[in-house]
Amino acid sequence: MNPSTSSALRDISSLSSPAKTALMDTIAQEMTTIIITISKEIQRGTLKAQHTAPFNLFIRTIQRDETAQQRKLERKLARYQRRGRRWRAERQWIRRDLAGMVRQMEILHGRWKKRVEVLEKKGSVTVASVSRSDSGSGSLGGESSSG
To answer: Which of 22, 97, 104, 145 is the most exposed place for a label (fewest CB within 10 A)?
Structure first.
């Protein structure tokens, strides 16, 4: 790594955001150049496995960390998928439950509608008389309140 890059890396906390990005770009370019150069020297036979052992260790460390990160992300994805399945099941249960409540309300509505019709036919109650007696009293049951 070139000395100016190395010193900039030591002072990274004092750099601006664009300068940090530029530094990372420079480091990535230098690493790419180094890797390509090492690869060419291996192909030429200049470097043997004993020479590149530290570099191979470095690459295995990166791969191991990458594998650990991959497993962590896969576990997280599996958790999200389980949560999604659980939420879908809950939504279906809520829809079924709500549909059951709606059916019960329709049944109750039908029963009360029949009762009102029967009472209206008998002439004992009309819808208009019920709404007039409830709206004027201000209390339940048609009682007048005195205070």
So the answer is: 145
